[in-house]
Amino acid sequence: MTPHRLSRDEARRLAVRAQLLDADRPGDPVEVAEQVGWIKIDPTAVIAPCEHTMLWARIGEGYEPAHLRKAVERDRLLVELDGAFHPVSALPALLVQLRRHAEHPRATEWLAVNARFRTEVLARLRAEGPLLASAIPDTAEVARSNDSGWWSDNQVPRMLELLSYRGEVAIVRREGRSKVWDLAERVYPAAPEPTPEEAERDIAARRLRAAGVAKHSAWTPVHDAGEPVEIEGLKGAWRVDPEALAALDDDPGGRVALLNPYDAMLYDRPRLEAVFGFRYVLEQFKPKPERRYGLFAHPILIGDRFAGMLEAAVDRREGALHVQAVHELLPFEEEEREMVRAEVLDLARWLGVPLTDTSDV
């Protein structure tokens, strides 16, 4: 079919609206996850953990962490899998795709030599119900190497993670930051299993819906989902979500959003630079002398422009949100400066702490 044509401004508006970062705010975590696709879980809490700041940035002051717990633990409308919360509607396709990880030759070999260990883990969960990994004995006969340093020597968390990719166990809740596991059949709803081809199409369509407009890549594998589109000044074969395109003229307008560095909006770095002209580098792992904007600076979205970086942190001992700087990547107008300040104040109120502002905003 003949490609649609979009200006760069229109492409940015589509992307912002697809991520629920325009003036029309969603109502709850399930609505966010259905549209955005996934809510990243990360314990880094310079301000607050990613799963909560992602939801606050979209829902606003009405969001409380208890809403996420209810959706996951009681209503079972969201599931934790592979480091993120996903809508339960995506679960069948996700499990088909994740099973490929569990079928990697090294994973298959490790499971084979630890067949008794696997059986003992599943038997303990079946007999005792939901358990922390620490409550399950490590009886592995062969340990996996720990060259990366990301794992402890305890093989139980590795086994549970691998079995979750196979759809045999599931995370039922968290106690603090620790996962509580159970048999998947007691957590997940019964649903038909799609074929690999159906699963790939479903996930590609969800990715494109979450992006609004994207180029198929390793960052955002949309394949041939949606419809072709040409974006003014950009090369390559782009795809657009037809429903988002049809609603382009219904744009409710923009607002200010403060984004956690692990927010889904920031994930596809090449798209971020191509469409928004924003080259984002997380400085968390840079030596301090090489940082320009701070350890864990939050990008500031004003309308459809990445206009600044918020350098701030919660001081746990003092119980206050300290703002060291608001770095202007693009010059703020006075009205924009007031909007940013209002959003930072809203952030402090949501956190339940006073604001200590040493910046010029």
TrEMBL record:
InterPro entries on file: AlkZ-like (IPR009351)
Which top-rank group of organisms is this from?
A: Bacteria
Q: One Pfam match, by short name?
A: AlkZ-like
Name the chain's protein: Winged helix-turn-helix domain-containing protein
**Species for this entry:** Amnibacterium setariae
